[in-house]
Design goal:
transmembrane; two-stranded antiparallel ribbon; single chain; 583 residues; 8 strands; 6-stranded mixed sheet; 6% strand; transmembrane helix; Transcription Regulator spoIIAA
């Protein structure tokens, strides 16, 4: 008679469990009228925030304000409909301003759209390959560093519009080249523009303190636009600079695609995908922390990928999850992804019914919005805390921060991640230790009438057996120092016991250290016994060719001693302090 097999431990999630959009999950739970009402209110609230922000980010990125709205509408709808987070709001993000502007400058608008489309394919591939979990391994000092660096660049890019400067030539992109040009043109500052940008910032800050639930961004932009129109102020507006905003979505299309063009924009596409995956998953984690829910990382990346491809088809640019808008969505009482989809539809209604009004918005007002965004992006408390935390974290933070400002965002993330990884390896290696033990005689009662004799440890010690206990992760970072201790075994020993009971994992470098020791022991006629190995450890050792007769395996030190015909247990060995740690 066959008996049912019971499987213990966590089960591998199925494909459908990993990649079912949260929208489907919410609808399966039962979607009622009160849920729709809550999502509609939250969606309208987020749309009010996203309206001026999307246009401001687009202009700062070298695109048109209409493209910013297309990105928020198409990308935002698809992120909510297909993503793995209940509350994620997608759209253009301030973090992309630097990358998008550089791509437009290098490859033109067609190159930006093509790079966005390709980045969508890369994001979807990352998701389907289930690499979303690894994206979360970006060290915290790296995210704080590049975010702060982006904030500095965003603010610097808005100085011209904040002051209304008139430049004789195009504004340089590099910060060190930009600042002297702006300084030399300070006499061309426009007082009306300064007044509008300062009023925008003042209104946003005041409303955030006095009426935090009011849509400060939209109120500030609307008030300053009305003032500029009524007073006929000599300032640049969306209408004068871009000719207004079309009253409908464009026809889906892609620019002409050639192999040469694809290869040229590929670095930008990978940069979009890398930053997009980091930003979107960070935003999803923030939403999880606010709601107690859990997002599906890989499903979220697939949704982000489809959203970027959809945005590119309608002339938009990079889409990602946005922390500020997602948090607004949660605080507004959203029930699920329908809120994000409705936010996109509300933005579409603005294009259809109120696009002509956007022509009156001063660029100085949008620059004021971005100045506030840059201030909020710079996580001041986190920045100073990391600077004081440790020299390692401070180094990772400053390297990422300075490279973002003066070099390139992609280089900054890679360099910061590499430095953070090296510091982590160093710290992990310091937690790994090897303790040496010498086998000593048991202290037994004296059966003679003469009483006990004096205990002589030197005479009682058995010089033939040496026991090493390794604790901590035995990996390449610690292999050299542990190997140096293990190599101290001398010709006078006949057996070496290495206890791995406190080792959670072992890598190929550490296994190679044991293999070299095994070969050396074989030439000396020395027996090596490995104790306390788990199934996973043995699998790694066997893969490296470490198996009998090179070494012998026993479950415990006691059984190893019994195999060597030595009775006793752990009471038979004492720690030798001189060889307690390789560090």
């Amino acid at each position: 008679m066959a008996h049912p097999t019971t499987t213990f431990g966590p089960q591998e999630p199925s494909f459908s469990e990993l990649f079912t959009p949260k929208l489907v999950t919410v609808l399966r739970e039962g979607y009622r009228l009160e849920h729709l009402r809550a999502d509609a209110i939250a969606g309208l609230t987020v749309a009010i925030v996203a309206l001026p922000l999307s246009m401001a980010i687009a202009i700062a990125s070298g695109a048109s304000p209409a493209q910013g709205l297309y990105t928020a509408i198409i990308g935002g709808f698809l992120v909510s409909a297909l993503g793995g987070s209940r509350f994620q709001i997608g759209g253009p993000a301030g973090a992309f301003i630097v990358l998008v502007a550089a791509t437009v400058q290098a490859h033109g608008m067609d190159g930006l759209i093509l790079a966005t489309f390709i980045s969508g394919l890369i994001l979807a591939a990352i998701g389907f390959l289930r690499l979303g979990t690894y994206i979360k391994f970006i060290p915290y000092p790296v995210t704080v560093g590049f975010t702060a660096g982006i904030a500095v660049i965003i603010f610097a890019s808005q100085i011209k519009e904040l002051l209304g400067l008139t430049l004789a030539s195009a504004e340089p992109g590099a910060l060190l080249e930009k600042l002297p040009v702006l300084w030399n043109n300070l006499p061309t500052a426009n007082p009306a523009t300064i007044a509008l940008s300062a009023s925008t910032v003042a209104i946003i800050v005041a409303l955030k303190r006095l009426r935090p639930r009011w849509p400060g961004l939209l109120i500030a932009v609307t008030a300053t636009a009305a003032a500029a129109a009524l007073l006929a102020l000599p300032v640049s507006t969306i209408g004068r600079a871009f000719g207004g905003i079309p009253g409908s979505l464009p026809t889906p299309h892609l620019p002409q695609i050639t192999i040469e063009k694809m290869m040229a924009v590929m670095p930008s596409a990978f940069a979009f995908a890398l930053l997009g995956s980091i930003e979107s998953l960070l935003s999803a984690v923030v939403a999880d922390g606010m709601t107690g829910r859990r997002h599906r990382s890989n499903c979220e990346l697939v949704g982000q990928g489809v959203a970027n491809m959809g945005s590119a088809l309608f002339g938009g640019f990079c889409v990602t999850g946005t922390i500020a808008r997602t948090a607004t969505n949660v605080r507004s009482g959203a029930h699920g992804p329908v809120a994000g989809m409705l936010h996109a539809l509300f933005l579409l209604m603005f294009i259809v019914f109120a696009a002509p009004l956007a022509s009156f918005i001063p660029l100085a007002s949008l620059a004021g919005v971005l100045a506030v965004v840059a201030w909020n992006m710079f996580e001041k408390q986190a920045f100073w805390t990391l600077l004081k935390a440790s020299r390692g974290d401070a180094a990772v933070l400053l390297v990422t921060f300075l490279l973002t400002i003066f070099r390139d965002l992609t280089e900054a993330i890679i360099a910061g991640f590499a430095l953070g990884s090296v510091l982590f390896i160093h710290r992990m290696s310091q937690t790994t230790a090897v303790h040496a033990h010498a086998l000593v005689a048991e202290d037994e009662a004296d059966a003679t009438t003469g009483g006990r004799t004096a205990y002589d440890e030197a005479a009682a010690s058995d010089p033939d057996i040496m026991i090493y206990r390794i604790s901590g992760a035995f990996f390449f970072g610690a292999a050299a120092s542990i190997g140096a201790v293990l190599d101290r075994i001398s010709d006078r020993h006949r057996a070496l016991i290495i206890d791995l009971d406190a080792v959670p994992f072992i890598d190929s470098t550490a296994a190679n250290t044991i293999e070299n020791l095994g070969h050396k022991a074989g030439r000396r006629g020395l027996t090596i016994l490995l104790t306390g190995t788990t199934e996973a450890l043995r699998a790694e050792l066997f893969a490296q060719g470490i198996r009998p007769p090179m070494v012998q395996f026993e479950s415990t030190i006691e059984t190893a001693l019994a195999r060597l015909n030595l009775p006793g247990g752990t009471e038979r060995f004492n720690s030798v302090p001189a060889a307690a740690s390789p560090h």
